[in-house]
Design goal:
single chain; 9-stranded mixed sheet; 381 residues
C-alpha cells in the first residue's frame, strides 16, 4: 500500500517540534513500524547526512529550502534545524526519494513546490549560556539543571527561573540568554524582575544581584517588569543606561542604531553618553540615535510598543522599513529595498502566527510596493 507522503511529512514535522497530540503519537509509532521510514526519522537529526542529501539531489531544487535553513544556522546548532522550520518537509522528501525514488516521483515534485513557499512563524526558543561555559538549548520542553556555581535553573511553561545556591559562590557569576531570529523567551531574574525577550535579542545578567545596583546588558528588544527595590535597576544598551526604580517598560535597540524606550508604568531615567539623565513619565517614548546622539521624547500609544507580547504585529503610521525589520526577525526572512521604504507609512494589525505569504500579500495591498521572492529573500520595489 502506498504511503501518504503529505501525512508523513506532517507527523515528522510535529514530532520534531514536539507538538504531537496523543492520537498523533500513536499514529507516528505505527508509521515508524516501516523500517524505511524509521531509518529516515533517525537520520534527519544527522547534520552530515542531511547536508550530503542536499548536495546529491540537485534536480529537486533544494536551494530555496536550504537558504531558509541557513538563516537559522547562525543561532542554533545544526542538529536542531528541523525543529525550526518547514524545511523538515524538504529534507524528508530528499531522503525519502533517494531510498524509494521509483514509488514517489510525482508526489515528491508536488511537495517540493509547496514547501519551497512555506516559512514558519517563530516560537519559544533561546540558548542559555551558563556561567560555567555550558550552552543549553531552550524550546518547548521543560528542563531543570544545576549550575556549577550552585544555582538551580528551571524552564517550564515558557519561563526561565533561578533558585539560588550559596550567594557567596555565585555573586560574580553571569548568565546570558540568547534569543535567535524567530524566537522569544521569558526569564525571571533573581530579584523577581520579569523580562520578556523578543526575537534576535540577548540579555546578560548576574545570577544574583549583590552590588549597589542591579545591572543587566541588553541587545535587541525586551519588556521589563521590574521589582521595586532600594537597589536601582539599570539596563545597559548601546552605550546608554536606563535607570529604573520599579516599573514596566519596553526597550528596543534597532539595527539602524537607534534605541526606543517606552514607559508603561512607574519611573525611569534615560542617560546617553555625555548627556544628563532625562526623566520619563508613563506614556512617553525616548528615541535615541546612537550615531548622531540626538534624543527625541514624545507621547505615544503604549499598546503599539507592547503588542508583540500579545503575539501581534500592530502599527499605526509606522515607516515600512521598521515594520519589515520586525517581520524579518520573526520569520527569519530578509528584505532588499529598491525604493525608499522609510517614506512609506503603514497601519497594520496581524497575528504573528499569520503565514508569511499572507503577510506579504497584506503589505502589497496596503502599499504600492511589490515584493519579489528571489533566492530565499524578498526584493521590495
Amino acid at each position: 500500500m502506498k504511503l501518504d507522503l503529505h501525512r508523513v511529512v506532517e507527523l515528522f514535522r510535529k514530532s520534531f517540534s514536539t507538538s504531537l497530540s496523543d492520537a498523533e503519537k500513536e499514529e507516528l509509532d505505527e508509521t515508524l513500524q516501516d523500517g524505511c521510514l524509521k531509518e529516515v526519522y533517525d537520520q534527519l537529526s544527522d547534520e552530515t547526512f542531511v547536508l550530503d542529501k542536499f548536495r546529491e539531489f540537485e534536480e529537486y531544487s533544494y536551494k530555496p529550502a536550504f537558504n531558509k535553513l541557513k538563516i537559522y544556522q547562525r543561532h542554533i546548532r545544526m542538529s536542531k534545524w528541523i525543529a525550526w522550520g518547514s524545511s523538515i518537509a524538504a529534507i524528508l522528501i530528499l531522503v525519502f526519494v533517494l531510498i524509494r525514488p521509483w514509488e514517489y516521483h510525482d508526489e515528491v515534485q508536488e511537495l517540493v513546490e509547496v514547501t519551497q513557499h512555506i516559512i514558519p512563524p517563530g516560537s519559544n526558543a533561546a540558548i542559555l549560556k551558563l556561567a560555567d561555559g555550558r550552552m543549553i538549548e531552550i524550546g518547548e520542553q521543560p528542563l531543570e539543571l544545576k549550575d556549577v556555581q550552585g544555582s538551580v535553573v528551571k524552564y517550564e511553561n515558557g519561563r526561565l527561573s533561578y533558585s539560588s545556591g550559596e550567594e557567596c559562590a555565585i555573586k560574580e557569576a553571569y548568565n546570558e540568554l540568547v534569543v535567535p531570529v524567530g524566537g522569544e523567551c521569558h526569564v525571571l531574574l533573581d530579584d523577581g524582575t520579569d523580562v520578556w525577550l523578543n526575537a534576535d535579542s540577548k540579555l546578560k545578567y548576574p545570577i544574583v544581584f549583590s552590588g549597589e545596583s542591579r545591572e543587566v546588558i541588553l541587545s535587541g528588544e525586551a519588556y521589563f517588569n521590574v521589582t521595586k527595590s532600594g537597589q536601582p535597576f539599570v539596563v545597559n544598551i548601546d552605550g546608554s543606561k536606563i535607570r529604573v526604580y520599579g516599573t514596566r517598560f519596553n526597550v528596543k535597540g534597532r539595527s539602524q542604531k537607534t534605541v526606543e524606550t517606552v514607559l508603561i508604568e512607574g519611573k525611569i531615567g534615560f542617560k546617553s553618553p555625555g548627556r544628563d539623565e532625562i526623566q520619563v513619565v508613563p506614556g512617553e517614548q525616548v528615541a535615541y540615535n546612537v550615531g548622531s546622539g540626538d534624543i527625541k521624547v514624545e507621547r505615544v500609544d503604549v499598546q503599539y510598543a507592547t503588542a508583540w507580547l500579545n503575539n501581534v504585529f500592530r502599527y499605526r503610521d509606522k515607516p515600512l522599513d521598521l515594520v519589515l525589520e520586525d517581520i524579518s526577525t520573526w520569520y527569519g526572512v530578509e528584505f532588499e529595498a529598491r525604493t525608499e521604504l522609510a517614506r512609506i507609512e503603514i497601519t497594520m494589525n496581524l497575528s504573528k502566527e499569520t503565514p508569511i505569504d499572507e503577510v506579504i500579500q497584506f503589505l502589497e495591498e496596503m502599499t504600492d510596493c511589490k515584493f519579489i521572492k528571489e533566492r530565499g529573500h524578498y526584493i521590495v520595489k
